[in-house]
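> Could you send the Thiamine diphosphokinase prediction when you get a chance?

Sure thing. Input:
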Amino acid sequence: MNRKNTGTRMRDKVLLFINGDAPKSLPNPEKYGLIACTDGAFHYLKRMGFPLDKLDFISGDFDSHSGSDEDMYQDKFILTLDQDKTDFHKALEIIMEKGFSDVDVFGGSGGEQDHFLGNLTVAYAFKDGMKIKFYDEFSEYYFIPNDFKLKGVKNKMISLYPFPSVNNITTKGLNWSLTNGSLNITSRIGTRNFAIEDEVSVEYESGDVLFFVGINEIEYPTIY
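Output:
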């Protein structure tokens, strides 16, 4: 099934479900040119009534495959047995092989926290070749380039998480700003800030930043 040529879809954008906490609400599949999930995520999509016929592929080792009610989707199965890579990693490799690089990920957080940290590490490994954005019930988060701006964020929580460090970082539009500062995972991180302007900008010289923006506006911001 090829949806890349459908005019109403974002031709280069991928929707990927992985096996963390299931999203509280499902995104609109009509926005995407490729839709995929790992085998663990397949089960919560089935429970939530996601239109499974819209999946382009389901990848994994299928150790949680439950039988006959799923057999109708076997033509979408891609078996990935490499135990040195996570299901998320292997799904991203398939997506790259199919020529896509812009991926919205649901189910990346929650559940066992080592999986969450592993998902961030996988996204870090692919950040130079792919644009990967995670979504959960609290926030959107992704790695940002050295010169980054985002509009429409006034009164939303903003966190800057060094991965593992970032140097000469300057921010604008945040309540607690940085000017040629530095962040490091072992000493100083930039979590639980909030936007006081509609637009936030971040510039830095070296390192990597994982950027979080809250989904909802906050009335009483707190710093931890």
